[in-house]
Amino acid sequence: MKKSTKSFESALELLGSKWTLPIVSALLEDKSRFNEIQRKCEVCPRTLSARLDDLEANGIVRKKVYKQNPPRVEYSLTKKGESLSAVINAISDWSYKN
Known about the structure:
single chain; Arc Repressor Mutant, subunit A; 3 strands; 14% strand
């Protein structure tokens, strides 16, 4: 299998995972805490946690932990994650037209 085909399939697998695009869309608006993302996307905590871990491992989401009591965690998009804006807009436009 050619590298470009494998890369494309890997991207589709990641982006095609349930909740990935809604989570990325929510983070395109602004950085958010876990509960804010959960509220925006209406996703269960376990699924959200798993998806955020996947997105962080793939360099799409950045997790920032603030050392305070109680601990505070914010999620934001990396440059790679922000570049998905065009993809999400294209999918949205396509679905609107079809």
